[in-house]
Structure formats: C-alpha cells, structure tokens
Design a protein that fits this description.
71% of the residues lie in helices and 0% in strands. It contains three helices and no strands.
Length: 38
C-alpha cells in the first residue's frame, strides 16, 4: 500500500478498493514509461 500511495499518489481507500488488475496495470505502465530506448 505504501508504494501505491508514494509512487502513484493513491489514498488508502483507493488502494483497498482497487482490483489487482488495476494495480498491475499501473505498475506495468510505469515500467513501460521508464523503459530505455535503444
């Protein structure tokens, strides 16, 4: 929960009501946005 609050600005309520799909979609989007281009 702390990572989602810190990295994505979520509230505790947003974290607890989110589905696992929503959480992983955010993590994957962040990874894609920060991926190095060759």
């Amino acid at each position: 929960m702390g990572v989602m609050m810190d990295a994505f600005g979520w509230t505790a309520e947003q974290y607890w009501t989110a589905t696992s799909h929503e959480i992983w979609a955010l993590v994957e989007a962040r990874e894609a946005a920060n991926k190095r281009q060759r």
